[in-house]
Amino acid sequence: MAEELIKALTKDSYDVSQLSEDERLLLAEIKPQRLHFEKDSVVFREEEPANYFLLMKEGICFNHRHLEDGSRQVMDLYFPGEVIALSELPLEAHVSGLTTLSDAVILAYDKAEITEKCSRTARLSRLFMELLFREQAILTERLVEVARHSANKRVAHFLLDINQRLPPSTKLLHHAGADALSACCSPKSLTGLSNLVGIPQVLIADALGLSIVHVNRVLRQFKEAGWIRIRSQGIELLDIDALKVAAGWESEGEARSILHNQHGALNGDTARSHVKDNQ
Amino acid sequence: MAEELIKALTKDSYDVSQLSEDERLLLAEIKPQRLHFEKDSVVFREEEPANYFLLMKEGICFNHRHLEDGSRQVMDLYFPGEVIALSELPLEAHVSGLTTLSDAVILAYDKAEITEKCSRTARLSRLFMELLFREQAILTERLVEVARHSANKRVAHFLLDINQRLPPSTKLLHHAGADALSACCSPKSLTGLSNLVGIPQVLIADALGLSIVHVNRVLRQFKEAGWIRIRSQGIELLDIDALKVAAGWESEGEARSILHNQHGALNGDTARSHVKDNQ
DNA sequence: CGGTTTTTTGATGGACGTCAACCCAAGTGG
DNA sequence: CCACTTGGGTTGACGTCCATCAAAAAACCG
């Protein structure tokens, strides 16, 4: 029953993908509650006590924070199989609210139980660490993203990111089944056709820190370029490659191979090279 | 000898501040290398193999990434007692470079040794988790910060943040000893006088994703308002309260008390309240 | 003291927010 | 079946913030 958890924790993990039999047994003891929500319902609010470790089972939701000025910052979206608001796990109370974007099923594990199990086996907590590290990497990426890139790039990046994380089942919502599949599965990601479920534009705006008006403008540009199509409450990606170019995607992440091996001081050299490689 | 590590790991930690005797012994076995660097030297570069867990002992340094367009993103600054680039711990190679801003001493722990020790005791890895969670919280804060706030706010925030993390010893660089101390130690942070060591403006710009020209303009505004004074290669904070107002500081972080307890669905209620609390 | 960075300042333009409409689809109640 | 509402999306006019370009001034470094 807790296979869900194991799957989530080991999802494309680097190397720690298999647990010992002991650990499997430990985990299997944890029974989650299975919670159903309808579209647009509030799972929890900011400042509310946080007692559960949450795992997205079906549907989509997002967490958000309200700022002093009344605006809203969308922190992240969550898709099936993803851990929800991991960074709030150790907190007594939530610092962000969680709202569903569609009908959804969420698995709720008792937090105390989890941490108890964790402290029992070092291996398990290392899995969590793994997860944390991955989250951090993503956050860092997003930070750079938001700090440096234009609205166009941000929106393109956002669309691609969402599209990538969107599970195939959800993608096939409309027609275009084969195309969507090939577009998402082929490593070369040929210009395909895929679909985003009802993500309102205001959400994109709040996620990227842009005004809804400007998001709309950008989307219109994309539409006129033939890269996307806009349906009621949803965006269809038509030309993924073009979007990748617009986003400056450069197959980031995995492609950081170790190329120029001029070493810094830690690896031998002691050059006093000033920090002027930029521009 | 590894007391340094313990101190860093437990620094204002929530509750896991003390280790068992066993764990202390385990840690004490890890002997760091003590590395000395002079100002503006490169500790490591991007893409370089990452073999050490680094702890700032003396001085200041920062890590940074080079973007496609040739510009530089400063990821974070590190002050004495802080763990360096924690998020890169599990990575084979660094994704950011590290450069010193002043003469510096860095403690380097063998990574393999650390992780080995970690997997031996669950408690120790929980400490690391603690650290990771804290980093995440900070990153999240920064994300919101960068996404939503004006240059003025960002700069003000940056100055305050740095000022807070700057250890007293470094602050006393010039004169103004007593004032600096009271300004940093008193909880009410009365309008005081403190000092930032040689942080070039270009670094602020690269950290905040602003142009150096604009950073300079903002600083000039602050100067003309009498909030800061600019010395060669350094900025002195004169009116911290005014800066806090400018930054929209609102004593963030700790002050998030649990106030309005209207519960979301997870805590009983099942209201279908739409997501329209903003604006 | 010249060369090299940093800081400072001005002028100009583009990107993006704000305001204010209008459109359109989906209810909702009569 | 139709008026009315309601919430999102769409569009234009306009202003602000901030990047860019360019160049002077100041600080630094041998």
Describe the secondary structure blueprint for this structure:
2 copies of one chain form a homodimer.
Chain A: H1 3-10, H2 21-28, E1 33-37, E2 42-44, E3 52-58, E4 61-66, E5 72-78, E6 83-84, E7 97-100, E8 104-110, H3 111-120, H4 122-148, H5 151-165, H6 168-171, H7 177-185, E9 194-196, H8 201-208, H9 212-224, E10 228-231, E11 234-237, H10 240-247
Antiparallel strand pairs in A: 1-8, 2-7, 3-6, 3-8, 4-5, 4-7, 9-11, 10-11
The first copy, chain A, binds a DNA duplex (30 and 30 nucleotides) through α9.
Features:
4-stranded antiparallel sheet, globular, Jelly Rolls, alpha+beta, homodimer, disordered C terminus, DNA-binding, Arc Repressor Mutant, subunit A
CATH fold descriptor of the largest domain in chain A = Jelly Rolls
Total separate domains of chain A = 2
Number of strands of chain A: 11
The oligomeric status of these chains comes to: homodimer
* Main sheet: strands, sense, barrel of chain A: 4 strands, antiparallel
Largest interface summary: A-B, 85 and 84 residues
Mean pLDDT of chain A: 76
**Can you say what the CATH homologous superfamily of the largest domain in chain A is?**
Jelly Rolls
Distance between the termini of chain A: 54 Å
Query: In order across it, which strands form the biggest sheet of chain A?
Result: 1-8-3-6
**Residue windows where pLDDT falls under 50 for at least 5 positions of chain A:** 13-18, 170-193, 252-262, 269-279
CATH class (first level) name of the largest domain in chain A: Mainly Beta
Radius of gyration of chain A (CA) equals: 21 Å
State the helix count of chain A.
10
Proportion in helices of chain A: 25-40%
Name given to the CATH architecture of the largest domain in chain A: Sandwich
SSE series of chain A: HHEEEEEEEEHHHHHEHHEEH
The best one-word shape of chain A is: globular
Strand-residue proportion of chain A: 15-25%
Structural class of chain A: alpha+beta
